[in-house]
Specification:
259 residues; two-stranded antiparallel sheet; two-stranded antiparallel ribbon; 10 helices; 4% strand; binds protoporphyrin IX containing FE; transmembrane helix; monooxygenase
Length: 259
């Protein structure tokens, strides 16, 4: 529990602002944020392992958990290939992302990490395909960060073009292309369609983002299109909802950029 809270609080750092830092670092050719995050993550993992080792030495009567089992296997050394401490850490890390340590943390970890890393991959992929947009993004980052060795939260506000790049990426590659399914409470007529009560409804955000009746030349990666319109991604404009909308809108959509 304690570790999960710690990881969660790191995620706030790791996801909302520094994932941008990571992206900026990649574009700027340095990875100092990644190295720092790796060090911090490693410290948390070391703490988890240390607590379990001490619990083992106390001869604790508590039920074994996954980490206890891994450490026991490691101690006995009965495997053909020895289990290193890095192996143990890797399993803990994956488990933290997959098992429910406590409900909110699991949901938050998965919701926050997969979506963000997926978006960053698409940003890099689109930029690689469009060298002119890549250069423009790099130029802005280098100008804004000139002479700095460390990013501050406020620097994000000056990275206007990067903001457009991310918005355009989310239009073309929403990480949850069908959002989360909804159930219709009561029978409804919508645009001539009859939706029965209890029907499961999915919203195809991917298709909406590429609808030629909404977007000009929808298959082109063109961040500038967002200069000309004021669509935000906070669920107010139904033609652009990569973070969903309504009462279950993604809480992560409040990125540190003013709209
Ligand atoms: C590029 C980044 C992200 C995208 C595109 C994204 C997208 C989404 C989408 C589409 C949903 C479902 C909304 C709906 O069905 O209406 C959702 C839910 C959620 N997201 Fe995100 N997300 C991102 C980052 C994050 C981050 C950083 C966090 C946490 C800090 C987060 C936490 C959540 C949670 C907890 C939910 C469930 C909300 C609920 O069911 O009430 N997401 N996200």
């Amino acid at each position: 529990m304690k570790e999960s809270i710690k990881l969660l609080s790191m995620l706030r750092v790791a996801d909302l602002f520094p994932s941008m830092s990571f992206l900026i670092s990649c574009l700027d050719g340095s990875s100092f944020q990644m190295k720092r995050l790796r060090r911090e993550m490693d410290a948390v993992l070391n703490e988890i392992i240390e607590e379990h080792v001490m619990k083992g030495e106390d001869g604790g009567e508590m039920e074994e958990d996954l980490v206890d089992v891994l450490l026991r296997i490691q101690r006995k050394g009965e495997l053909q290939v020895p289990l290193t401490m890095d192996n143990v850490k890797a399993v803990i890390l994956v488990s933290l992302f997959n098992f429910s340590l406590f409900c909110t943390s699991k949901d938050m970890l998965v919701a926050a990490t997969e979506t963000t890393s997926n978006t960053m991959c698409w940003v890099m992929s689109e930029l690689m395909k469009t060298p002119n947009i890549m250069s423009k993004t790099q130029l802005e980052i280098r100008e804004v960060l000139r002479g700095k060795t460390r990013l501050e939260d406020n620097d994000i506000h000056d990275l206007h073009y990067l903001h457009l790049v991310i918005k355009e990426t989310l239009r073309m590659h929403p990480p949850l292309p069908l959002l989360l399914p909804r159930t219709c409470n009561k029978a409804t007529e919508l645009l001539g369609f009859h939706i029965p009560a209890k029907a499961r409804v999915v919203v195809n955000v991917w298709a909406i983002g590429r609808d030629p009746t909404i977007w000009k030349d929808p298959e082109s990666f063109c961040p500038e299109r967002f200069e000309e319109n004021s669509r935000d991604f906070k669920g107010n404009n139904y033609e652009y909802i990569p973070f969903g909308s309504g009462r279950r809108v993604c809480p992560g959509c409040y990125l540190p950029w003013p709209e």
